[in-house]
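Excisionase family DNA binding protein structure dump, as promised
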Amino acid sequence: MSTDLLTVGQVMARLQVSKHTVYQLIRTRRLRSVRIGRCRRIPASALTAYLHDLDREVTGHGR
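structure tokens r here:
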């Protein structure tokens, strides 16, 4: 089983947000991440889940 891990920079680029925003999402547990040594990585599946949750918030589905 292979899990794609994204850097904070890659997530910044995909979401077109700042580093602060990505870390805020991680701190508030809206975006799951893992720590490998001193590096923070975001599983691609976590980014997909976040975008799915965001879409449900915007469209009002799932409530």
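DSSP finds three helices and three strands in the chain.
lmk if u need the other ones
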